[in-house]
Structures are given as C-alpha cells and as structure tokens.
Amino acid sequence: MHRALASSLPTVLLLLAGCASSGYQRASDAADRTGSYHEELIRLRAQVGLAIDALRALSENPAGSPRSNPETLQTFRLELAGLERRAERVRTLHGKADAHAEAFLTGWSTDTAALTGAELKQGAETRRKALEASYVELEQGQAALDRALAELQRELGELALYLEHDLTAAGMGSARKTIQAAFVDGALLQDQIEAQAVRAQRTAIQLAPLKELAPPPPGASRGR
Predict the structure, then answer these.
(1) What angle (nearest 5°) sits at the alpha carbon of residue 204, between those of residues 201 and 210?
(2) What are phi and psi of 153, to 5 degrees?
(3) Is 217 helix (H, G, I), strand (E, B) or coil?
(4) What is the pLDDT of residues 65-118, one digit of tens each?
(5) How far separated are the first and last CA of the chain, in Å rounded?
(6) pLDDT band at 17 (very low <50, low <70, confident <90, very high)
(7) Residue 146 to residues 36, 76, 141, 192, 220, Cα–Cα distance (Å)
C-alpha cells in the first residue's frame, strides 16, 4: 500500500493548478518534519543504550575499585539527563510532524471536495486516507513510546536515587533484581523505538514524490 502511494501522485494536486504549489509545499513540510522525527528516534534509541550501559558499568564495577563508583554514578546521572532531553525532543518533533501532516491532509481533503469527477474524487480519497492512516499509526506508536519511556525513566531514576546512598557491593546485591529488570526493559524499549523509526521513515518516503514537486525556495535552484 505504501509503495503504491509513493509511486503515483495525487491526481487532484496535479489538476488543480491554483492549489498545486501550496499542496506540494505542505507535503514537503510534512515530509521534512517526519524525516527529522525519524532521525531523532534513532538518536533516542542510542541514548537508551548509553543509559543502560552506564547502569551496567555500575553493576559490574569490580569490588576492588570502589573509589571509581561515584564517578560511574555521575556518568549514569548524565546519561539519564540526556535520555530525558532526547525523549522530550522526540515528543516535540512528533508534534511538529503531526501538525504539518494535518495541515497537508486537511488542505487535500478540502481540494478533493471541489472535485465532481467520480474517478478523480475516489482516487484522491484513497491516497489521502492511506497517508492519513500512516500518521494515525505514528501517533499511536508515539503514545506507546511515551508510556514505555516514562516507565524506564522512573525505573532508572529510582535506581539512581537508591545508589546515591549505597554504592557498596551489598547495596548492588540488594538491587540486583531491579537492575536486571531495567536491562530487559531497556532492550525492549530500544526495539520499540526502532519499530517506530521504521514507521516514520516509511511515512516520509510516502511523501517523497510530492516533496520533489514543491517549488524551490526563492533564489534557490533545483539540482540534478
């Protein structure tokens, strides 16, 4: 379904010359924001890995070098802060991608309503609904990510607070189950982020043919 949409242009935007440029520009804006969202998801996945690796370094620290534990804990805290920033950035970029997609799809729906030919109207509706479904899927995926991220951040934050007061081998031993659960949850979250990144990339690809037809910025020339 997505390949078919990517390989054929919406008939309505080709025929309504008065609305074509604005339609293509809105599609280009949506594609750009969705692409940025995809890239930030990749960075978020890497940041989850960094936070989990920092926790692993704490839990596996040799008992013979206890003085290095506070430094390792500081690294863990820094990676947690980085995770919070990345998560917020992903949420922001998803919101922008969704807003630009809504503007494009709303304009497309309005233009389609002006059509009288049954074939053109049906073709435009089919293509628009397919793309709309992709953004609904992205929205649902982001909501699930938000929940999973919040849970992992809570889990890691509580471990950081616990370890502020007991970095001993005995303290680590008492938190062993929680630490192991965080490793599992982190790996599952990375898989979830990767799946969402694939969806975002696929959606951006759907818009690529339309983006190519957007007018270049003033003073810019299209390269070959």
Answers:
(1) 155
(2) -65, -40
(3) coil
(4) 555 678 889 999 999 999 999 999 999 999 999 999 999 999 888 888 888 888
(5) 29
(6) very low
(7) 18, 21, 9, 11, 39
For the CA atoms of the chain, what is the radius of gyration?
A: 23
The answer to whether residues 114 and 162 touch, using CB atoms and an 8 Å cutoff, is no
Residue pair 155/10 in contact (Cβ under 8 Å)? The answer is: no
Q: Which residue has the tokens 């982001």?
A: 142
> Three-state secondary structure along 53-119?
HHHHHHHCCCCCCHHHHHHHHHHHHHHHHHHHHHHHHHHHHHHHHHHHHHHHHHHHHHHHHCCCCHH
Between CA 141 and CA 198 the distance in angstroms is 11
Q: Which of 102, 105, 89 is nearest to 193 (CA)?
A: 89
The closest alpha carbon to 30, from 220, 195, 206, 218, belongs to 206
The pLDDT of residue 221: 55
Q: Looking at residue 1, what DSSP letter applies? A: -
What percent of the chain has a predicted confidence (pLDDT) above 70?
Answer: 84
CA angle 153, 167, 47 (to 5 degrees): 30
Query: Could you tell me how many helices (H) and strands (E) the chain has, helices first?
Result: 7, 0
Using the structure block, give the residue that is written with the tokens 């978020």.
44
CA distance 198 to 41: 10
Q: In this structure, are residues 82 and 51 in contact, taking their beta carbons and an 8 Å threshold?
A: yes
Asked if residues 201 and 81 have their Cβ atoms less than 8 Å apart, the reply is: no
